[in-house]
């Protein structure tokens, strides 16, 4: 098959590589010329995705994968077009911002030819495929969905850093606007993906027909919103445990020892492109989901809570040297999307602290580009807050942070034995 992948980001490029490795001709479209040039040179634009560089080099050299900035070079005569363009959410209003996706959809519709399967993998509010993309594509292309082309939704369900493994491990969910469209999508994904055997699933691992696009859209929102709500519940338990002197981690471990409890770990922040965003996409079509809203607001308030607890211990933070350990939204991932570092820095600055930021994955220039003063281990500091669970932080000792009067480990990653004699707090006590 000839496959076009629209947007060669941290999900789109590994998908393009996966499709090409399965034996198909793949053309990736990206509006960033620098990304296009790097891909065509066989160089990964964003290091860190396991196996991406080695696969990319082979496929580009073999002529099975190339990139372009022109939709007209990729979309015409494609058997399938897979769209992985980012969808944003306004931080203040929580309203989805379709600017980039609308532009990409218009561009692909201008060049769409009959017989093409169009699959959106970007997470969407329920109903978007049918009520937004179908009429827009039909209007611009002059083609009729269900007759001249087929439109489906098939959410990506992978994490950056392990995309290829996740593509094999998790069932591929597909929902179309018609039975024929869904059948075409199932056939397509079965031709480009392979799956691990999993005895824990109710049915064989593989491509799962969800019946409708709406069911597929909701499945992705539900599985991610569940995680946000679960973390919000864990954080509520942790805040109470702090008040009454209970080790919440022992409580969670005990609860999860039987199969009906799956309580997540509390933490200073929930970041990344997915968990902080998708509950708000869900709320855009189900505004009465009060549990979802409360959890999202609670999780968003955790950085301010951590800083407030630090102030309870140290008193006025004005003029104190405060260090935030970790710019990334999670350990081992070089990505600041919706990272808790932003709210943590803001909360510290609002209390008058002099803030620095450290992250082993970022250079000084990269940290400074965000408006942060870089910190180097060995420099004097009064307060340190662990925001990202990088493995390097597990080995930290007071000697690495001279003068430190309080370590607040927002991720529970540091070793308590190394901090005997220096005040150390963990959300939910214990450890």
Describe this structure in words.
The protein is an alpha/beta fold and 431 residues long. Helices cover 39% and strands 14% of the residues. It is built from 15 helices and 16 strands. An eight-stranded mixed beta sheet has the order 3-2-1-4-7-8-9-10, with helices on both faces. Helix 9 packs across helix 11 (278-285), helix 9 packs across helix 12 (290-300) and helix 13 (302-314) packs parallel to helix 14. The longest helix is centred in the middle third of the chain and has 32 residues, at 213-244. It is globular. The mean pLDDT is 97.
Helices, strands, pairings?
Layout: E1 2-6, H1 12-21, E2 25-29, H2 33-40, H3 52-61, E3 65-68, H4 71-74, E4 80-83, E5 88-89, E6 96-97, H5 99-111, E7 117-120, H6 128-141, E8 150-153, H7 163-169, E9 172-176, H8 179-192, E10 207-209, H9 213-244, H10 248-255, H11 278-285, H12 290-300, H13 302-314, E11 321-325, H14 340-350, E12 354-358, H15 364-368, E13 373-374, E14 383-386, E15 406-409, E16 424-426
Parallel strand pairs: 1-2, 1-4, 2-3, 4-7, 7-8, 9-10, 11-12, 11-14, 12-13, 14-15, 15-16
Antiparallel strand pairs: 5-6, 8-9
Helix pairs in contact: 1-3, 5-6, 9-11, 9-12, 13-14
Secondary structure tally, helices: 15
Q: Rough shape?
A: globular
Helix/sheet category:
alpha/beta
Radius of gyration: 23 Å
Unreliable stretches, pLDDT < 50, 5 or more residues?
none
The major β-sheet equals: 8 strands, mixed
Spatial sequence of strands, sheet with the most strands? 3-2-1-4-7-8-9-10
Strand content is 5-15%
Distance between the termini: 54 Å
Summed over residues and divided by their number, the pLDDT gives a mean of 97
Give me the count of strands: 16
Helix content: 25-40%
């Amino acid at each position: 098959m000839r496959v076009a992948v629209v947007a060669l980001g941290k999900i789109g490029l590994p998908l393009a590589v996966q499709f090409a490795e399965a034996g198909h001709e793949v053309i990736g479209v990206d509006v960033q010329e620098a990304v296009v040039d790097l891909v065509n040179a066989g160089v990964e634009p964003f290091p860190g995705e396991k196996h991406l560089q080695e696969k990319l080099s082979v496929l580009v050299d073999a002529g099975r994968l190339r990139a372009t900035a022109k939709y007209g070079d990729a979309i015409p005569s494609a058997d399938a077009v897979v769209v992985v363009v980012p969808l944003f959410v306004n931080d203040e209003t929580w309203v989805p911002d379709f600017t980039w996706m609308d532009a990409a959809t218009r561009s692909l519709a201008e060049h769409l030819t009959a017989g093409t399967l169009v699959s959106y993998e970007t997470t969407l509010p329920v109903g978007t495929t049918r009520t937004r993309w179908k009429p827009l594509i039909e209007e611009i292309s002059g083609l009729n969905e269900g007759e001249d082309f087929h439109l489906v939704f098939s959410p990506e369900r992978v994490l950056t850093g392990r995309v290829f493994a996740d593509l094999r491990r998790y069932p591929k969910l597909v929902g179309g606007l018609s039975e024929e469209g869904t059948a075409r999508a199932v056939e397509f994904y079965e031709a480009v993906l392979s799956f691990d055997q999993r005895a824990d699933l109710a049915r064989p691992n593989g491509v799962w027909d969800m019946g409708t696009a709406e069911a597929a859209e909701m499945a992705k929102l539900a599985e991610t919103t569940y995680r946000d709500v679960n973390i919000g519940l864990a954080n509520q338990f942790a805040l109470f445990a702090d008040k009454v002197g209970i080790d919440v981690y022992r409580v969670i471990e005990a609860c999860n020892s039987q199969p009906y409890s799956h309580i997540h770990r509390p933490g200073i922040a929930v970041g990344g492109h997915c968990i902080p965003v998708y509950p708000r996409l869900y709320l855009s079509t189900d505004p009465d989901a009060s549990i979802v809203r409360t959890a999202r607001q609670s999780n968003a308030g955790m950085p301010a809570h951590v800083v407030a607890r630090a102030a309870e211990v140290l008193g006025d933070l004005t003029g104190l040297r405060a260090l935030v350990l970790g710019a990334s939204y999670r350990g081992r991932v070089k990505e600041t999307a919706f990272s808790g570092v932003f709210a943590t820095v803001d909360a510290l600055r609002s209390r008058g602290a002099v803030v620095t930021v450290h992250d082993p994955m970022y250079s000084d220039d990269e940290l400074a580009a965000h408006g942060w003063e870089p910190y180097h281990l060995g420099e004097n500091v009064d307060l340190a807050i662990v925001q990202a669970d990088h493995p390097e932080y597990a080995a930290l000792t007071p000697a690495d942070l001279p003068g430190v009067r309080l370590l607040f480990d927002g991720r529970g990653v540091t070793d308590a034995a190394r901090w005997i004699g220096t005040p150390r707090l963990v959300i939910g006590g214990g450890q």
